[in-house]
Structure formats: structure tokens, C-alpha cells
Write a structure and sequence with these properties.
19% strand, 375 residues, single chain, 13 helices, 52% helix, alpha+beta, 10 strands
């Protein structure tokens, strides 16, 4: 209990390091919220797709904006051994015009009801029926940020085409490329996308595949590419990471998180190292009366854990309150509880790693020499 007793006696000294740890925890959680929010804003609607594989036109370089799949390729994918279901998905960037006169840039996904690609997280309202060109589903971001609800009227404008529709329901799939998402039937997508196109038209932008039970997904992807010329098939996760800018964005956030861990390690490590140097004489006395190096280091670890626990108890609620207070100004912030807990535990682990400098100094303390330094 020597370590805990020292915490009680030196409240100001340990209070300052606890405040520093609280700020590091606060920064860590805010970066976690920023990184998670930005990541979900870029790939949310793709990561939430109810399929295992995404089939692109091989010339599109995994860009859904450039990909076009014709009806023959769609049928061939559906016939491939190991495919339980194949759903065409159409992508379109358009402008939403609510009745209040606002203009909202958004992504539209066209799908066939009943096939992979249909949103399965309906929060309110009703799903779309096959061939419905009068209704759409909107993502929760449109409901939260713009107040759109089931029953609201919208005008969809893409190029020279316009369609007036009614919101039929709200789903939770997420944004795509930082744009809110609208879901419509493939029929409506085709009418908007190819309003001025004559002759043969693509059947979809990509094809979402659900693998049969027990099928090897990797082998199925290779089988599809072999059976259907001109296609490139990847996993849903790979399709999400192929969204432009996601990898670069994640690398920046991870870099900042890594720097935060480094700062936390240095702050805790240097503080306790200096504290250990100031207590060489006292450590010598404790070791002289029979205490082992491990006992002294264990008391140091108790102090580090206590400081981390108190710092987290201050920094975590502060981060949560900040996000809650600035929810409208920071809509992309989304602190994930699971990754936040892992981040704090990792910070504690790196802080303990920083105490190894102190452990080395404690091990080198010779009780006889240390006692000679005590005045």
C-alpha cells in the first residue's frame, strides 16, 4: 500500500499528472470519434450491404461511379455455382429538393426488392415494392440532419431528369462518400440515370452477391471472374475500402492516434522516472529492510494504474459531453464504445510500458549506496 499512500500524501503532484492523462484520454476519444465518424460517412452504406461479394466492371478499377454491368453479365453471375442470390445495384449522385426549398447533394442506390442490396435496417415506415417509382427510402442522416420523415415529399434531380417522390421509410445503412443516401427501386434509378440514353443500357452499376451456405467466398469470387468475362469481384469489405480517399483518410487518423499513444507513454513514463530518481534514498531504505525490486515496482504499477483510472474517469465523460453538446456542429463525430474502451486500455498498456525506465532504475538501486545518500 506504499504506492497508494504516496498518492494521498502528494495530491498536487499526482493531481497534475492525472490532469495530463485526462487530457490525453480526452484527445484519444475525440480522435476515435472523428476517425470512426469519417470512416462511416465514407463507407457506411457499402459496409452495411447484405451480401458477401461485389462484382464490378473490370475497367472500373473498383469505382462504383465508373462501373457498368450489362444484363448478360448479371444473369451469368446469378447462374454461377455457389451464388445463392445476386442483386443488381445502381449508383447515382443527385440533388434532393425538399418542399422547403433546400438543395441536398446525395447518393442514390437503386436495388431490386427481395434481392441482395435491399436495406434491412428499416427504422420507420415501410419497404419499397418491386417497380415502385413513386417512393424512396432515406438514410438516418437525412432524418437527423435535415428532418426528413416518412410521408415527406421530395424532388429527385439528376442531370436533366426530375422525379417527384414520397419518402416511404427511414433506414440505418449510413452515408456513402460523405453524402447522405437515398434508396430507390432499380426501375427508378434507371429512369433517372438513363433518362437521355437511347438503345441498350446497363442493367446496373455493380452486382451484390450472397454466397451459398458453406461456400468459400474467396473461391467464389475467383469462380465468378472466370465464368463472367470482363468482371472484377471483391469482398464487401474490400469494396468499402476501395471508396476514394478512405485509405488515405484512415492512415491520417491512425497516425494521429499513434502520436497520441506516444505522447501518453512519454508523459507517464517521464513523470514516474523523475519521481523514481527523487526517491532513490527511500527506495534504498525499503530494499534494505527486505523489500524486493519486484515489490517496489509493483507499487509503482499501482500508482500508474490509479492515475490512468482517475484520468479516464475525468477525460471520458468530458469527451462524451463535448460530442453531445456539439452534435449539430460535429455531425460526423461518432464515438464507438467498443473501440473507445480498447483505445483506453491500449493507452494504459503503453503507459505501463513507459514505466520500464523506472523499473530499470529501481533494479539498479543498491541499498548500501542509497542509504549513504540519505541525509
Amino acid at each position: 500500500m506504499l504506492g497508494i499512500n504516496e498518492l494521498r500524501r502528494k495530491k498536487v503532484q499526482f493531481g497534475l499528472i492525472t490532469a495530463m492523462v485526462a487530457l490525453v484520454v480526452y484527445l484519444l476519444l475525440m480522435l476515435n470519434g472523428l476517425g470512426n465518424g469519417l470512416h462511416q460517412a465514407m463507407i457506411g452504406s457499402v459496409a452495411g450491404l447484405n451480401g458477401d461479394l461485389v462484382v464490378y466492371d473490370e475497367d472500373a478499377n473498383l469505382s462504383v461511379q465508373r462501373s457498368e454491368v450489362d444484363a448478360a453479365a448479371l444473369a451469368a453471375v446469378a447462374r454461377t455455382e455457389g451464388v445463392a442470390a445476386a442483386g443488381p445495384l445502381g449508383h447515382l449522385t443527385l440533388t434532393l429538393l425538399p418542399e422547403d426549398g433546400r438543395r441536398i447533394d446525395a447518393t442514390l442506390w437503386g436495388y431490386e426488392p427481395g434481392l441482395p442490396g435491399e436495406p434491412d435496417t428499416l427504422r420507420e415506415g415501410n419497404p419499397l415494392a418491386p417497380g415502385d417509382v413513386e417512393h424512396v427510402l432515406v438514410d438516418r442522416s437525412l432524418a437527423e440532419e435535415y428532418g426528413l420523415r416518412a410521408g415527406d415529399a421530395l424532388t429527385l434531380r439528376a442531370g436533366g431528369a426530375e422525379r417527384r417522390v414520397t419518402v416511404r421509410g427511414v433506414v440505418s445503412e449510413g452515408k456513402y462518400a460523405a453524402l447522405p443516401t437515398v434508396y430507390a427501386t432499380l426501375t427508378l434509378w434507371d429512369a433517372l440515370k438513363h433518362a437521355n440514353v437511347t438503345g441498350e443500357r446497363p442493367a446496373a452499376s455493380v452486382v451484390l452477391v450472397r454466397a451459398a451456405e458453406g461456400a468459400d467466398v474467396g473461391a467464389l469470387a475467383r469462380r465468378i471472374d472466370g465464368a463472367v468475362p470482363g468482371t472484377q469481384t471483391v469482398s464487401r469489405d474490400a469494396a468499402a475500402l476501395a471508396v476514394g480517399g478512405v485509405r488515405e483518410q484512415d492512415s491520417v487518423v491512425y497516425g494521429m492516434l499513434g502520436f497520441t499513444y506516444l505522447v501518453g507513454t512519454l508523459i507517464v513514463g517521464v513523470f514516474f522516472y523523475v519521481l523514481t530518481l527523487q526517491k532513490i534514498g527511500q527506495i534504498g531504505v525499503v530494499k534494505a529492510v527486505g523489500a524486493s525490486t519486484w515489490y517496489v515496482f509493483r507499487e509503482l504499477v499501482k500508482q500508474v494504474l490509479a492515475v490512468m483510472l482517475l484520468g479516464t474517469a475525468v477525460g471520458a465523460p468530458l469527451a462524451a459531453l463535448t460530442v453531445q453538446a456539439l452534435r449539430r456542429q460535429m455531425p460526423l463525430f461518432d464515438i464507438d464504445p467498443g473501440s473507445a474502451v480498447v483505445g483506453v486500455l491500449l493507452l494504459a498498456a503503453t503507459a505501463l510500458l513507459g514505466t520500464l525506465f523506472s523499473a530499470r532504475q529501481i533494479a539498479r538501486v543498491d541499498p548500501i549506496i542509497a542509504l549513504g545518500q540519505v541525509q
